Amino acid sequence: MGANVILVGFMGAGKSSVGRLLARRLGRCFVETDDMITAREGRSIPEIFAERGEAHFRAL
Asked: What is the pLDDT of residues 45-54, one digit of tens each?
């Protein structure tokens, strides 16, 4: 199996859209980091920011 591809950019830049297209073309899985974090933490990103702060979110 080849190396993973990680897309980095500002909010709203299109990382998820490009990631899904790229994964489909490469026959790979697409993983949305925000979805992994919300599943693990049991709360939404805004809730994590409000309850635990940005530093906690960034450490995840």
From this structure: 999 999 999 9
Task: Measure the CA–CA gap between 25 and 20, rounded to whole angstroms.
Answer: 9
Domain boundaries, the chain: 15-59
Q: CA separation (Å) from 29 to 2, 11, 38, 44?
A: 12, 21, 19, 23
State pLDDT tens for residues 9-45: 998 999 999 999 999 999 999 999 999 999 999 999 9
**34 near 45, Cβ under 8 Å?**
yes
